[in-house]
Amino acid sequence: MRKTQMKPDIVLTTKIFPPTQATLEQEFACHRLYEAADRSAFLKQLAPQVRALATFGAAGADAKLMDALPKLELISNFGVGVDAIDLEAAKKRGIIVTNTPDVLNGCVADTAIALTLNVMRKFPQSEAYLRAGYWATRGDYEKTTSLGGKTMGVLGLGRIGEAIAGRALAFGMKIRYHNRKKKGAAYPYDGDPAALARNSDVLMIATPGGAGTKALVGAKVLDALGPKGFVVNIARGSVVDEPVLLDYLRRGRIAGAGLDVFANEPNISSEFFALDNAVILPHVGSATNETRGAMGDLQVENLRLHFAGKPVRTRVV
Ligand code: NAP
């Protein structure tokens, strides 16, 4: 008689995009950590058999969770940003970490351009003006700032940064960039974030989050950007010194900010709601059905490959 194949056990740290979660539930014996009343008892019971974990966003995976699952071999992340996963702890324990790069570049770059257009042209504010009935009673909406001819400084010209730069060129913008390592890009390079800001009209933040970029954009960089400069952040809230950014927006020390990411998501500082020069989105950079589907396919593929004894496709460490 043929032995029935047991589904491999995996732990889910949080809810994932529903079609992806449905696939995971079908192919693996999924254990929902986020529903456990007693996390440590839940993990203790699973410790002998769990070799993989699927995670997403801020749920990440810390060293304590890795220690609670000593048989863990793989952490498969839904998303390219792995700042909520303790990569050093994973490396030390020989745990493979995977992410979902490239498949989301287009949508995140679209979001970056939408924020640039909206913060410079004030389209959301002008629509609110129209809806409030002011066009007829107060006259035309105020004049705003063109994109064409302006310089976008990309802080973090990686996969997503390149996609943003390509789109910005189509809007007639010029591109410059700063990475820690100068690359063979066709764009002028600035040696530090403040120099990039000084040479830019729009500072586009597209670095990873985490300790290496914490508060990289603070008073020094915003001073260099100046009162006519705009900041757009599609990276992580942690890359910006948020209290300083709020202060600079309130006092008009920069012209405006377009933000998809914040320090404390989803409970963002309510001070943003009162600012007319901030355009804010609830971390929707990659949030289309198509892109989330492609991210999920990659997350599942990495799990499948690993359990088939093959190398994963998109390894981070
Ligand atoms: P990537 O290809 O690794 O690009 C990151 C770039 O940032 C690299 O060019 C890197 O160059 C540069 N960088 C890293 N640390 C830096 C530092 N301290 N100073 C200056 N530049 C630095 O990553 P990606 O795929 O484009 O993704 C970038 C990030 O976007 C993700 O990590 C994630 O946090 C964010 N993201 C956000 C959303 C959203 O929904 N809003 C969606 C997807 C991704 P060097 O190594 O030479 O410095």
Description:
The chain is an alpha/beta fold and 317 residues long. It has two domains: 9-101 and 290-307, Rossmann fold; 105-280, NAD(P)-binding Rossmann-like Domain (Rossmann fold). The chain contains twelve helices and eleven strands. It has a six-stranded parallel β-sheet. Strands 2-1-3-4-5 form a five-stranded parallel β-sheet. 40% of the residues are buried. The mean pLDDT is 97. It binds NADP nicotinamide-adenine-dinucleotide phosphate. NADP nicotinamide-adenine-dinucleotide phosphate (NAP) is lined by residues 80-81, 101, 104, 108, 155-161, 178-181, 206-209, 212-213, 216, 234-236, 260-261, 283, 285-286.
Short description:
The protein has about 325 residues and is an alpha/beta fold. Helices cover about 35% and strands about 15% of the residues.
Task: Give the helices and strands, then pairings.
Blueprint lengths: L8 E4 L5 H10 L1 E4 L6 H8 L5 E5 L6 H6 L5 E5 L8 H6 L3 E3 L6 H17 L1 H9 L2 H5 L12 E5 L3 H12 L3 E5 L14 H6 L3 E4 L13 H7 L4 E4 L8 H9 L5 E4 L18 E3 L8 H19 L10
Parallel strand pairs: 1-2, 1-3, 3-4, 4-5, 6-7, 6-8, 8-9, 9-10, 10-11
Helix pairs in contact: 1-12, 5-8
This protein binds NADP nicotinamide-adenine-dinucleotide phosphate (NAP).
